[in-house]
Amino acid sequence: MGKTVTVGNKKVMLAPFSSWMVVFVFIPMALVVYFAFTDGDSFTLSNLQYIYTYRHTLWLSVELAFIATAICLVLAYPIAYILSRASERIQRNATLIVMLPMWMNFLVRTYAWMTLLENNGIINSALRGLAGLFGSEFDGFAMVNNRGAIVLGMVYNFLPYMILPIYTALTKIDNSLIEAARDLGSGGFQVLKRVIFPLSIPGIISGITMVFIPSLSTFIISRILGGSKDFLIGDLIEDFFLGNSGVVNYNIGAALSLVLMIMIFIATFFMNHFDKEAKTTAGGTI
Amino acid sequence: MEKKNCLIDLKNIVVSFDGEQILKGINFYIRDGEFITFLGPSGCGKTTTLRIIAGFLEPDEGEVIFDGKKINGVPPHKRQVNTIFQRYALFPHLNVAENIAFGLKLKKMPKDKIEAKVKEMLSLVNLKGFENRHINSLSGGQQQRVAIARALAVDPKVLLLDEPLGALDLKLRKDMQVELKKIQQSLGITFIYVTHDQEEALSMSDTIVVMDSGKIQQIGTPTDIYNEPKNAFVADFIGESNIVDGIMKQDMLVEFSGHTFDCLDKGFGKNEAVDVVVRPEDVDVVPVEKGMLTGTVTSVTFKGVHYEIIVDIGGFLWMIQSTDIQHVGDRIGLYIEPDAIHIMKKSEYSGMFGDFSSYSEEFDELSDVNSGVEDGENG
Amino acid sequence: MKILAKIYAFLIFVFLYAPIFVIVVFSFNSGSSRAVFEGFSLQWYKEMLQDELILRSLWYSLIIAVLSAIIATVIGTMAAVGINNLKGWKKSAFLSANNIPVVNPEIVTAISMMILFVFILSYFNSLEMGFGTLLIAHITFNIPYVVLSVLPKLRGMDSNIYNAALDLGCPPVKAFIKVVIPQILPGVISGLIMAFTLSLDDFVISYFNSGSSFQTLPITIYSMTKKPYSLKLNALSTIMFAVILVLMIAGNIRKPANEKKLKK
């Protein structure tokens, strides 16, 4: 094989990266698998079996992550579309406007929602004041320490991750394509359905992945907004590794992590598959 | 073979990539001060050969000799050759003068000398006063000139040019051809030029190396290559050709298309099957009764200087170029002088070229454009 | 339709910015309630600036962020150059490996490294998680982002530019510094900045890999939220937010000017 001159020696350039990844990514991953299938020293499936007792938690995690992702998608698509059609001045700052809230510490932000939602919080106080004007009593809505609050926390924290990829996909659509569709007699809704939507699917897919994964694996949002009732899979993993509820068990924690990884792997696999399919259909539609 | 003034000698160069042989044993030498062109379609190995001379690619086998010394393994920055790259490869973060001075600074030349040299180079390429211009503000042709100035500033013994005019439009390309040839003659240094454009090769070169599928098909002067192509590939690639199967009856007598012609070629075996080349401009149109061959006109295209006429002769389509108009459907006679007939030995390319039945102008141009782009990718 | 769109956009941004607004407003509260604004005061800012724990962890956060960003940028940039030279399955293998920490849930990355560290540290009884483990963890999750921001610049660069420098007599290392680095610098810098901010902001991975002696700001904030909530956190967040806002706006104002220059 002819040796070509390349920028830098391949081996030298990749050596630090490769060794770093092996020691601090691959070996740790292998350890997770090792711990998941052993109990101290011998091979066992009991860790995975033990997880079965947590099936409700697992299911709840999937359910809440799914709901949060769906809500994010519904909320994000219109705003991404609006931003993608906005004036150049707004567009230049669109990413900044959407990302800016993320630059405030997320724990403090999540706590701020407590301030807004709790029984003596800002919203309930305002409503109470309003009710007072009409001379009636108002107990306030129970808006925190429940599953709805967890979903709200997820939606709030991860919404930008849904908006931005969709926005990017929408801005990449060639305007002449839309004009061509108009030209061929498609009405506004038809254009949206047949041209814009299919072409934005890659953005939707990465948005879904970027919201679903952190929603499924969060452990702090549920802790703050969900009270202590509803444990999610992330909370379980944290407990088994840090022993906040008295038990430290790396093996079960590792097994739970493995299950989490597998769920996410399956989800991403489906998403990618869907993405490819969408691309071919989109190509066929136009 | 005597090698006069030999500057670069390539001996049995073999290169393969991913199991595919790109160069299959290349042998030739380059004389000091000549303008030599590697000509061939995309993927023929011409750019690869250039990269071996520049030192960007080490061959698997074979020797590269420069000025009598083997330079295999000598890294590019220690070779006395400089390259003009396909898309110029100017340094976008430096201005025109800084680009040209790049190699000079590395030579630790004093500042005032660098300045003088930059000025001299800019005037050589007709870009006086462009010193402080930003690279991105230049047109393609201007960038091309800066690239030439940058490479020539370091006084190379050899300048390698990798399809340097490929990105320019036709008019500019023609002007630059003349200018490049002028620069080469005035400096007297060796130019090694790579192109897939046969016209460019014919008009600029002292020597042309025709390549295909990693092999050299023919080496010669432009006239040699045009008039005495070695095989069907060369005949077809250089200019338009009618290539038909023939049988050498005896020396200076060949039979093809059902007629026996006088020719000037000899040294073939009796009744040897050969390829016969007749250039379209060497065929005379005559009345049917006076024709050595007769056929029906199937298409006529006006080309400005002449008409391009496709004639069906017994199912084989000939192309002829004539200043007289003919009409589709006309039966005409063709007359071919003995010196218009060129006989070639049969080769692996026999039968692949020569019939104009699938010929289409647009297709030809399209493939030209494509080959330019692809060559850039596969190097 | 236009008006509907505006109302919708307005509501979404209210949703996104409401907590920010609340945090900023209540940082100026003269009382200590998170929900009842009693009057304007700067007392929480004063207290925050006197809180040694906060200042120390801010300092730790900055040290970790700067060091991990620089080291990750060096390793990541080299890796991007190496990966860019690869072809076929080798290239996709390296890219996939690079993506593992990006795609993997943070908590899994966190506990996997924690297992490794506990495993190694158990051999040296005296050692505890702290600066070293935290730095390694941050470098690990920063590297992929640097690679991903440098790679497109390399792809967009004509590789012959490097060859041209060699061709003109420049030795390889010098050619890399003089010609390649200037071309990929924007990617390297944005990778560096991204690594810095990711590191500064990281909670999950630090949470599992920091130990009690060396806590970064997000960890400290978390432990403070567990105690009776103090509006010092609001003051702290507001200041940090303001700093980032100023930096971002400065960066954004500079950008259009640069873009104009690059366009022909």
Topology, pairings included?
The complex is a heterotrimer of chains A (286), B (379) and C (264).
Chain A: E1 3-4, H1 10-36, E2 38-39, E3 42-43, H2 46-51, H3 55-84, H4 88-99, H5 106-117, H6 122-133, H7 147-172, H8 175-183, H9 188-217, H10 220-225, H11 233-242, H12 250-285
Helix pairs in contact in A: 1-12, 3-7, 3-9, 7-9, 8-9, 9-12, 11-12
Chain B: E1 6-17, E2 20-31, E3 35-39, H1 46-54, E4 57-58, E5 61-66, E6 69-70, E7 81-84, H2 96-106, H3 111-124, H4 140-153, E8 158-162, H5 170-187, E9 190-195, H6 198-204, E10 207-212, E11 215-220, H7 222-227, H8 232-237, E12 242-250, E13 253-256, E14 259-262, E15 272-278, E16 283-286, E17 293-302, E18 307-313, E19 316-322, E20 331-336, E21 341-345, H9 361-378
Parallel strand pairs in B: 3-9, 3-10, 7-8, 8-9
Antiparallel strand pairs in B: 1-2, 1-5, 5-6, 10-11, 12-13, 12-15, 13-14, 15-21, 16-20, 17-18, 17-20, 18-19
Chain C: H1 2-27, H2 43-50, H3 52-85, H4 88-103, H5 106-121, H6 131-156, H7 160-167, H8 172-201, H9 204-209, H10 217-226, H11 232-262
Descriptive report:
The complex is a heterotrimer of chains A (286), B (379) and C (264). Chain A has helices at residues 10-36, 46-51, 55-84, 88-99, 106-117, 122-133, 147-172, 175-183, 188-217, 220-225, 233-242, 250-285, and strands spanning 3-4, 38-39, 42-43. Chain A is mainly α and 286 residues long. A two-stranded antiparallel ribbon of chain A has the order 2-3. In chain A, strand 2 and strand 3 form a beta hairpin. Chain A is flat and about 65 Å long. Chain B has 9 helices and 21 strands. Chain B folds into 2 domains: 6-227, P-loop containing nucleotide triphosphate hydrolases (Rossmann fold, 3-Layer(aba) Sandwich); 242-352, OB fold (Dihydrolipoamide Acetyltransferase, E2P). In chain B, the strands form 4 sheets. A 6-stranded mixed beta sheet of chain B has the order 7-8-9-3-10-11, with helices on both faces. Chain B has a 5-stranded antiparallel beta sheet with strand order 14-13-12-15-21. In chain B, strands 16-20-17-18-19 form a 5-stranded antiparallel beta sheet, with no helix packed on it. In chain B, helix 2 packs parallel to helix 4. Chain B has 379 residues and is α+β, with helices and mostly antiparallel strands. In chain B, 39% of the residues are buried. Helix content of chain C is 80%, strand content 0%. Chain C is built from 11 helices and no strands. Chain C has helices spanning 2-27, 43-50, 52-85, 88-103, 106-121, 131-156, 160-167, 172-201, 204-209, 217-226, 232-262. The two termini of chain C are 38 Å apart. Chains in contact: A-B, A-C, B-C. At the A-C interface, helix 1, helix 3, helix 4, helix 5 and helix 7 of A face helix 1, helix 3, helix 4, helix 5 and helix 6 of C.
